[in-house]
Design goal:
By secondary structure, the protein is of the alpha/beta class. It contains 7 helices and 17 strands. Strands 1, 2, 3, 4, 5, 6 and 17 form a 7-stranded mixed beta sheet that branches. The chain has a 5-stranded parallel beta sheet with strand order 8-15-9-10-11, covered by helices on one side. Strands 12-13-14 form a 3-stranded antiparallel beta sheet. A hairpin with a 6-residue loop joins strand 12 and strand 13. The longest helix has 21 residues. The radius of gyration is 21 Å and the shape is elongated. It starts with 5 loop residues before the first strand and ends with a helix. The relative contact order is 0.18.
Length: about 325
């Protein structure tokens, strides 16, 4: 059996909209990309039932079905998809080294990172049970489904403030559950929330349970100062306590901000390491949409192609 190390032109880590879009462009440029899906093939969209804001799907489409179509399109042009996880990297030399979780070493002249981010959850059993049945971590993605209904948002930072003000345009009443007696959000966002009449702020309040069997019918909350429990009828429950980018394996090699989002040269997908490019939610904490992730995946593939051309590899 040969122990020869496989060397690729383009290796893509992650398989959401960014990874598969990068693969489509890289494959069409004859870079023979290999996509490593990671632990969640398809990324965050795999837990999204209906996607209604992606161009080209006038009737909307299920998240898993959409990612299957992304994958088929990438494979049509010759992308190889491997259902493995990259668990370690070494970006010291001109050829980048990676290791799969089974210990296999691979080398690649260019690497596109599209590992995405994961929403942080409260850890309630009812939250998991009612996921996509009224529980969501993205108001921009799912708020439309709750038009005219009463909803709750959990969180006290900028994300929660943005989600609450967005939902307030669609819903008659938005309950904002803030764990402390103040918000962490920037002053401008706090002012916006406080000036919005149909946002009710519940201070020192935590969610105990989301109520309902097959859909959200309400929530039981507790005031952590008085220990008083209250039941509030809501049809939507939005968790907005932040996202964690899936970038831990790059921390010794690439620049990232204090929360772990990868830093790129503005207007490009280039990291500080030549030949390593970042796309999608691993590098984007502002927009976090499938369509913007796909756009940066395209950028990463074009940047990789130019890099490989300049280096004389293709």
């Amino acid at each position: 059996m040969s122990n020869e190390i496989e060397t690729l032109k383009c290796l893509i880590i992650g398989s959401g909209p960014a990874g598969y879009t990068a693969a489509v462009y890289a494959a069409r440029a004859n870079l023979k990309p290999v996509v490593f899906t990671g632990p969640e093939p398809g990324g965050q969209l795999m837990i999204t039932t209906d996607v209604e804001n992606y161009p080209g799907y006038p009737e909307g489409i299920g998240g898993p079905q959409m990612m299957e179509e992304f994958q088929k399109q990438a494979q049509r042009f010759g992308t190889e998809v491997r259902y493995e996880m990259i668990s370690k990297v070494d970006f010291t030399g001109p050829v980048h080294k990676v290791w799969t979780d089974s210990g296999k070493e691979l080398h690649s002249h260019s690497i596109i990172i599209s590992t995405g981010a994961s929403a942080k959850w409260l850890g309630l059993k009812s939250e998991q049970r009612l996921m996509n049945q009224g529980v969501s971590a993205c108001a921009v993605c799912d708020g439309f489904f709750f038009k005219g209904q009463e909803v709750a948002v959990v969180g006290g930072g900028d994300t929660a403030a943005e989600e609450a003000t967005y939902l307030a345009k669609l819903c008659p009443k938005v309950h904002l559950l803030v764990r402390r007696d103040e918000m962490r959000a920037s002053k401008i966002m706090q002012d916006r929330v406080k000036k919005t009449d149909n946002i009710i702020i519940h201070w020192n309040t935590e969610a105990e349970e989301i109520l309902g069997e097959n859909e959200v019918e309400g929530m039981r909350v507790i005031n952590n100062k008085t220990q008083e429990s209250t039941t509030i009828p809501v049809q939507g429950f939005f968790v907005a306590i932040g996202h964690k980018p899936n970038t831990d394996i790059f921390k010794d090699w690439l620049d990232m901000d204090e929360t772990g989002y990868l830093k790129v040269v503005p207007g490009t997908s280039k990291t500080k390491v030549p030949g390593v490019f970042a796309s999608g939610d691993a590098a984007d904490k502002v927009y976090r949409q499938a369509v913007t992730a796909a756009g940066t995946g395209c950028m990463a593939a074009l940047d990789a192609e130019r890099y490989l051309t300049e280096e004389g590899i293709i």
